């Protein structure tokens, strides 16, 4: 009788990949990130890009460096209700560099975000490899994490929108610091010092860069530093402390005396706590299944514990808490990844500090690092438990990466221009007045004034900017009295708005109210003496009034400020024809 064959021994730890395999995996991750977001280079400026880039005086040269470092983020933009909560000088410095290199060519700004995302994706793979290697989990987890991060559709807002370079830049700094610290020995080392610089880099891009301290702390306590001496602990964290002190020395004077802009405070403490649970469900759902991507998710507060959104958030928290407790002892690497994800979500639950819409997809750029590392660990665990399933797991990952890449590339096209962005957003959030106003402005840019009016009127009374756009649309449609009423309200709300005065001037010109038109154009010139547009408007009014010499003076001054300015040249040609007609015929 033959003896039964012995059962196969459990699979041992996977072999560590060679250096060549690691470089190939890293290259694959970076190429996937590059291909997925390459079409963002064809996108233009949208939403806050216009203010932060096209009309930002701080980008003109290094003479503004003092103001950038010594002021809050929006100090250059004198708009009622603008938030004073943020100190993000590296955003302005990044755009200043882009302006020096590319002018106002949008592709250059998108290139910076694209390269930043490629770098972050590569660092996710590198950090994942170090994290997994500590527990000998094999390279598949790190590769899966890097690929999923590279193509995840939730990142489209952060990468395809130039103004969201702060999220990419902050995460790049955090990931660099993590990688240097995870590959450094205990104590004060060169890599620890470099991590301190990367930490300062992250903080100067966006305030949640402070989360690095918690991410490093969890990693050190759970995986790395149990045998370190107090001196080694101090040396390791000293560069981070120095970076934090430098950041505070820059931020505190710049923000001194400023009030905080808070939203949804009428909910009260109980209401704010209650509405944190739906946000948990919304964020976790967007990470797992990013189906309903939207530039503006309208915040609808929950009012009771019985609200399904509250219950789903509670269920998600309980489930994730149980998973974390199980992993704490059994799978420390997976616990660290999950802790990174959940820890980075915590600041997103403080609703008053967020925008009016509370939930934004770009906020998930950093939390998704922990999420994809956790998913990578899960795939690796399945592979170790069932080695025969490798072809199926690899195939599933390939399908997921391909599907995510296609979905992200398609979503990038929504961010192509203002019309594509806001028409998509309006179809998903039609009840939000600011979305209607933004779509109205996009329609004005396309010359569709009648359609623009329909959307702008749904944003009334709206901001001064909305009313100015509505007045412009009324004027273009010949509804001059309505245009006059809107623009008069704008100059009352914002008497320093030169373009509003200039538009009101042209409305009164068409109404043949010459003295009012001249006075308003002169006000616009006084407010913006270096801009050619108000001088052209004043020249046009003076020409219509028959004051040819004064008109010529202002038109030539406009050309001196912008040589070749077509409206000024055309008016000068018209002025010469007027003079020739006025001259008596030669005897």
Structure explained in plain terms:
With 587 residues, the protein is mainly α. 67% of the residues lie in helices and 0% in strands. The protein is built from 27 helices and no strands. Helix 18 (418-428) packs antiparallel against helix 19. It is elongated, with a radius of gyration of 29 Å.
Secondary-structure map:
Layout (H helix, E strand, L loop, with lengths): L18 H19 L11 H6 L10 H6 L18 H14 L3 H28 L6 H12 L4 H5 L4 H18 L7 H16 L5 H14 L5 H26 L12 H7 L1 H13 L19 H23 L1 H14 L21 H19 L4 H25 L3 H11 L4 H13 L3 H8 L7 H13 L3 H14 L4 H13 L3 H14 L4 H14 L2 H14 L4 H17 L5
Helix pairs in contact: 1-5, 1-6, 1-17, 4-5, 5-6, 5-8, 6-16, 6-17, 8-9, 8-10, 9-11, 10-15, 13-14, 14-15, 15-16, 18-19, 19-20, 19-21, 20-21, 21-22, 22-23, 23-24, 23-25, 24-25, 25-26, 25-27, 26-27
Question: Taking Cα atoms only, what radius of gyration do you get, to the nearest Å?
Answer: 29 Å
First-residue to last-residue Cα separation: 136 Å
Total helical elements = 27
Overall SS class: mainly alpha
The topology string of helices and strands comes to HHHHHHHHHHHHHHHHHHHHHHHHHHH
The average pLDDT value, as a whole number, equals 89
Largest sheet: none
The count of strands amounts to 0
Low-confidence segments: 1-13
Shape designation: elongated
Percent in strands: under 5%
* Helix content class: 55-70%
